[in-house]
Amino acid sequence: MNISKSEMKTLLKSQQGELNVVLMYQGLSNVVKDTKDAEIFRKLAAEEGHHAAVFHGLTKQNLKPKKTLSVFMPILYRIIGKKKLYPLIIKGEYDAAKNYAPIAKKFPEIESVKNDEKRHGDIVAGLL
């Protein structure tokens, strides 16, 4: 399959984002007070890892996760708490779903990732 330069840029950015969020959810699972939240964040981390693998299948590039979110979000959790932090996570998941919609038209394997992101937003919303 032919992947244009701009599509590759989008795919790599998406892959990087998924990798970063794996660490973010793992980091949050270690600091949240609610054990149910921690359990869910561990599951979401695993699913985000699968998403990164889907993008890797297209890009064939090995990327390293950036630790920024995994450091920043647990600190933010301690400062502002779940009622203010979770809506930011929810927005991030819904935004990812929106961002994946156009590229999923050309790459059908991204459709399930897009749907998962929407579901992740709903799951985190359910924790509030």
Automatic annotation (TrEMBL):
Residues 10-122 form the Rubrerythrin diiron-binding domain. It holds the Pfam family Rubrerythrin. SUPFAM superfamilies: Ferritin-like (SSF47240). GO terms for molecular function: metal ion binding; oxidoreductase activity. InterPro entries: Ferritin-like, Ferritin-like_SF, Rr_diiron-bd_dom. This is Rubrerythrin.
